[in-house]
What does this fold into?
Amino acid sequence: MSPSEFSRRRFLAVSASSLALVACGEDSDSPSPVERPATPPENVPDVPEPTPVATHPPRGAHVSFTVDAHTSRSLTWFSDGDQAPVSFLEYDTVEEGMDDEAISATPLRHRIESRVEATTGVAALTHRATASDLPADKPFRYRVGSELGGWSPVRVVEPLPVKDWSFIHYGDQGTGPLAKLVTDEVLKTPSDLVLIAGDLSYADGTQSVWDVWFDQQEALLSTRPMLAAAGNHEEKDFGGDAFKNRFTHPGKPATSIITGDNPGSTFYSFDVNRVHFLVTTAGALINDGTLPEEMLNIEADLSLAAVRRAAGEIDFIVVMQHFPIWTDQDGRSPANPALVALEENIIVRYGVDMLLVGHDHIYQRSAPMSFGLRNPLGYVQVMVGTGGASVRLFDANGPQAWSASEFVGIGFARYRVSPGRIAVEFIGAPPLGLSDEERGQSTGEFKVEDRFEVTSRDAMACRACVQAPRNRLELAALLSDYTQTMRDRPARYIHSHG
It folds into this structure.
């Protein structure tokens, strides 16, 4: 019996009014309050009704989208224990003239029952619900939970602009004081989307750490859509199953071998206006057996994206993953051999414009490059492993020729997107010093440490990147080299605690 079925049977004995709530179906109007006499009966004292005690209050609510970035919103949240009342996403729009009190107090007209599954590694349940066909130009207000279990506050997600918009990118966060500084600064910095490039909680098998991370992030992630890539520390949580269970992402690209619903996908793609995004594992979850399927998806997705760009449908192709291809972090330079051998061939083949990564706890941005050399037709790698897990140093040999900017500290990158142009700022705060002890603390003085922009390719360059996706035999040859190289990776990543 599924948790949802069990919960439904467990709570059949509730009062008639509560039962009416449980029976509400997808996108139905929220029930009206029970009508009461205008005046109490005579000789009966007017005793206020007790406030219901929440039995399973929702926690860790975070917003994403699984279909259209403008007209859908997906909510994921958790409740403690292996039983819970049937829970819902209730939602509506914010209308002109509504103040904060009206936003919270005005009944929410739409309701969707959550999909429920056991939360990986802890005695809790993961709830998911998606609202579709939303007005693209109005703020989305919502709450999650139930009458019996308890409700979250009513929160608001602003609409995503259709022309000029922005997103924030960082990775490698954890739950310590440096991570809190980054989250607080991101909260102060307007953006329409948050992208996290892996190594989110650093639970490393201790699943309760995920609860701490979501508690610390809820103020941010419950009000801004967020999508994430899996990192090597996610692999330590049941081979990535904890990551798949706790996030709701768009489905796999269209050529998936394994069909069906996959809300926690670790490789997926989506569009926001004129930018196409592809999120990959880059082998971070190599032991889960999905890499061959993922490679077929990546080839087909980027090949189609290159065709769409040449046709003028989109301006940019952006890939996000955890691992960098090239790096100057101390102990890891100059490159990741496995990704150079396999992935860089794919990125260059289809003309990816930007590669957003983390993993190395530094900020380093390349000039347009390919295969370790500056190339005006290449991709820009933006390494922002500065989410707060720790602060690392650069190789004593100095930056390689492809590197255009470096920074030691914590921070995040903000991307302002307009037609044909992406303007980027890295906003960082330095550590107290460069010793091991001093790098564990920060001044907290954030400021812009790097600025650059990427412009769309000309028509000839776009046409040159229109290539047919490689077939299984061609990919099998690449994967055989990749698998062997991956076996050698731990020797290179001697500092793999990062």
About this structure: The domain at 3-10+21-26+54-157 is CATH 2.60.40.380 (Immunoglobulin-like). Confidence is low (pLDDT under 50) at residues 1-41, 255-260, 490-498. The chain is about 25% helix and 25% strand.
